[in-house]
Structures are given as structure tokens and as C-alpha cells.
Amino acid sequence: MRTDLTERGTLIIVDVQIDFCPGGALAVDRGDEVVGLINGLSARFAHVVATQDWHPAGHLSFASSHADAAPFSVIELGYGSQTLWPDHCIAGTPGADFHPGLDLTPVDLVIRKGFRPTIDSYSAFFENDRSTPTGLAGYLRERGLTELAFAGLATDFCVAWSAMDAVRCGFSASILMPACRAIDLSGSLEAAVAALKGAGVTVMEELP
Ligand code: VGL
Ligand code: ZN
């Protein structure tokens, strides 16, 4: 018998936090629109995990940590190129909280990322050196969870990097596009969607 993705799969809710919603420090256009859709999904998925961007003050990914650097400029760091962001999601501050409308009741695990001062972490699985693990792959494997669906913020950064790494780690991955919103810096959304499809991520234009 064919079962629905929601019955087999694990929903991974990416960074639905105050700073990524309108009015926040790194607001994603219409980012708050995902909240109700994600609540509807998480009530139906068998397993739910949420990620939380969680940076110390003075994090190396902040433009304010570099002399004369503008937010949204790109620099080279030891682990590769890094977009410099406005200060956001500082651990323990209100901006790092989940959106108040997000239903956390169905969430089995919250995984924080980006807490090391000198390395960013877009992906739920690895920091931006693409090799330091967050522990999420081990958690999912140990629980026998192999089929992952991603929703949240932002499509072209943390959602895309998470789904790419999921496939790299041997999971199957879908992105639920209606429940994601993008930052879209100089074509980053189009580039991300092409890369996702090339990597074998299922880009779903309708919700399951
Ligand atoms: C994110 C930029 C910086 C995201 C997090 O959640 O997509 N983007 N930190
Ligand atoms: Zn961040």
C-alpha cells in the first residue's frame, strides 16, 4: 500500500525565527507566511525536527565583525566564501526565538547551529566547512528516519544547504516550496533550485 510522505517522513522545519520574519534583523520577505502552513504540516508528519540559528554576539558571519564590510557583501574565509549578514539570531535574544505562532508541540528535536564564533552553519547537518557535523545525521540514522522533507527559511540558504547535505548523507530529501520563503540575493534562489534538482532533491511545488 502506498503511504503518504507525511506518514513515512520527517519534517525538518528550518529557522522559523523572529529575526527571519518581517520586522526582524534579517527579514525574509513574507517569511511569516510559512508559519500557518508549517503548523498544518507538522500536525500530520510522523516525525518533526526544528533547527534554530543560534549565533554568539560578534559572530564571524556578521558584517559588523569586519572593518568596512557592508551587509550582504561576500568575503573569503578559511572554509570558503561567506556572505556577511546583519547581526541576527543572537543566542538568548528575542530575535533568536521561534516565531511565536509556530507550534512546537509536535517537534521531537531542536537542533541549534551557528554557535561557534568563527564558522557559520547554514545546513542542519554540517557547518559551512561542509565537514563539521551538527549530529543531526546520527540522530536520524539511529532512529531509522530516512525520508526527509524541508520547509522554512530561507529557501536559498539554510533550507537549500540542508537538503543538499541530506542527500550527501544518504537520506532522501524533498523541499516543500509553498512553505519556504527566500532571501534571493543576486539570483541565489534560481541557482539554489537548479543545484537542488541536480543533486537529486525533490522540489515539490505543492504541499503533500
Ligand atoms: C540563514 C543567513 C544567515 C538562513 C541563516 O536561515 O537561511 N541565512 N543565517
Ligand atoms: Zn545565521
Order of helices and strands: HEHEEEEHEHEHE
**CATH level-4 homologous superfamily:** Isochorismatase-like
CATH architecture: 3-Layer(aba) Sandwich
CATH third-level topology: Rossmann fold
Structural class by helix and strand composition: alpha/beta
Ranges where pLDDT stays below 50 over 5 or more residues in a row are none
Number of DSSP strands? 8
Number of helices: 5
| Proportion of strand residues | 15-25%
Rg over alpha carbons: 16 Å
Span of the ends, CA to CA: 17 Å
Describe this structure in words.
Pathway: Cofactor biosynthesis; nicotinate biosynthesis; nicotinate from nicotinamide: step 1/1. One of its GO terms (biological process) is pyridine nucleotide biosynthetic process. InterPro entries: Isochorismatase-like_dom (IPR000868), Isochorismatase-like_sf (IPR036380), Isochorismatase_Nicotinamidase (IPR052347). Belongs to the isochorismatase family. Keywords: Hydrolase, Metal-binding, Pyridine nucleotide biosynthesis. There is one protein chain. This protein is of the alpha/beta class and 208 residues long. It has one domain (5-55, 90-204): 3-Layer(aba) Sandwich (Rossmann fold). 22% of the residues lie in helices and 22% in strands. It is built from five helices and eight strands; from the N terminus they run αβαββββαβαβαβ. It has helices spanning 5-8, 34-42, 136-142, 155-168, 188-199; strands at 10-14, 47-53, 74-77, 80-83, 109-113, 147-153, 172-181, 202-204. A six-stranded parallel β-sheet has the order 5-2-1-6-7-8. A two-stranded antiparallel sheet has the order 3-4. Helix 4 packs parallel to helix 5 (188-199). The model has no long low-confidence stretch (mean pLDDT 97). The chain binds pyrazine-2-carboxylic acid and zinc ion (ZN).
